[in-house]
Structures are given as C-alpha cells and as structure tokens.
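Exercise 7b. Backbone tokens:
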C-alpha cells in the first residue's frame, strides 16, 4: 500500500462535518496510512453535525507532532471549538513548522488562522470565511483544492476527491523522498 508506515492525525470536536472527517479517514486508511483521531480527550466521542460519533484515539495533550506525518482538520463548526484549544493549535503549528502536510477544508481554515500559519500563503475555504483568511494575511482563491507548499486546502464536501488526492500524493511523495534519502546513506 502506498502509505504503509505513514501516520496521520485527524482533529475532531463537536459539530464536525461528517464527510470532511470520515472521507479523508477512510481514504487514508484505504491507502495504508495509520490514522489517529485526536480530540480534546482520549476515549471521548465528538458528535458530527448529524450526530455521527468520532471517538478520539488520542487526547490533544498527548498528541505529538513528531508522531505524525500530516494532520487533517475537518470543517463544519468544530473548527470554531478546535481553535480555542491551545494544544490543538500547537499541534497544527508544530506539524506545519516541520514541513509536513497540513490539510484543511471548509470552515477548518479557522484553525490555521488561529495557529498563525497563513500569512503570505495561498489557500481556499468555504466562501463564508474568505474575509477571515484574507485578514490573516492569506491570498484566497476559489478553487476545489489549493496546494501551497505543505498547506492543502479545499472548499466543501464536493471537493473531497481532489482534497484527498492531493493529500495522499503529498504523503506518497514524502515517503519516496525519505526512502531515497535513506538509501543514499
């Protein structure tokens, strides 16, 4: 499997958008990645907008950037809660600073805004938070998926195939680069 040995954190909080959490989780697992749902506390369940549960494998205080190759932030209204947790913001910021993929969709742009990682970057989101992203110093464009370095962003659930394609491609590319670097020693 193309992502065997790859570890991805997916953030969860109350009122997440069902498809924006579960579609990436299932696609990443299908590609061979180990996916951990990170919530406020390990073992707690966050409910989606429609009541579907997501049980946290790890609590935000125990999640470490060094343990993951990427992070996914789903949208819905959960990001408004996520950005109030310093531990979640620190995790996103640390993964970003390590040059690892930070993928976010819809309202999830609020999290990288609050983590302070968007200044000078090109991104997209649901149009409702366009002004928030621009005010955070980002260049906002209306496209199904935008990749700017290690940032991968999309607008809404219909964009999920492109979003996951770019995320899986970025992770596969990182694996190839790491393998080549290891064999060159």
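Sequence design result:
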């Amino acid at each position: 499997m193309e992502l065997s040995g790859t570890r991805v954190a997916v953030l969860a909080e109350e009122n997440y958008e069902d498809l924006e959490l579960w579609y990436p989780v299932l696609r990443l697992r299908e590609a061979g990645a180990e996916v951990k749902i990170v919530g406020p506390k390990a073992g707690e369940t966050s409910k989606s907008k429609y009541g579907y549960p997501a049980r946290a494998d790890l609590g935000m205080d125990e999640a470490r950037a060094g343990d993951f190759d990427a992070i996914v932030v789903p949208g819905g209204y959960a990001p408004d809660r996520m950005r109030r947790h310093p531990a979640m913001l620190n995790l996103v910021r640390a993964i970003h600073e390590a040059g690892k993929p930070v993928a976010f969709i819809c309202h999830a742009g609020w999290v990288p805004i609050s983590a302070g990682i968007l200044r000078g970057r090109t991104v997209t989101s649901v149009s409702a938070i366009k002004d928030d992203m621009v005010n955070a110093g980002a260049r906002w464009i209306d496209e199904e998926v935008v990749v700017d370095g290690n940032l991968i962003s999309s607008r809404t659930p219909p964009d999920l195939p492109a979003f996951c394609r770019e995320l899986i491609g970025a992770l596969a590319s990182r694996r190839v680069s790491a393998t080549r670097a290891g064999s060159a020693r």
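Instructor comment: The chain has one domain: 7-176. The helical segments are 18-30, 78-82, 86-97, 110-115, 130-135, 160-183.
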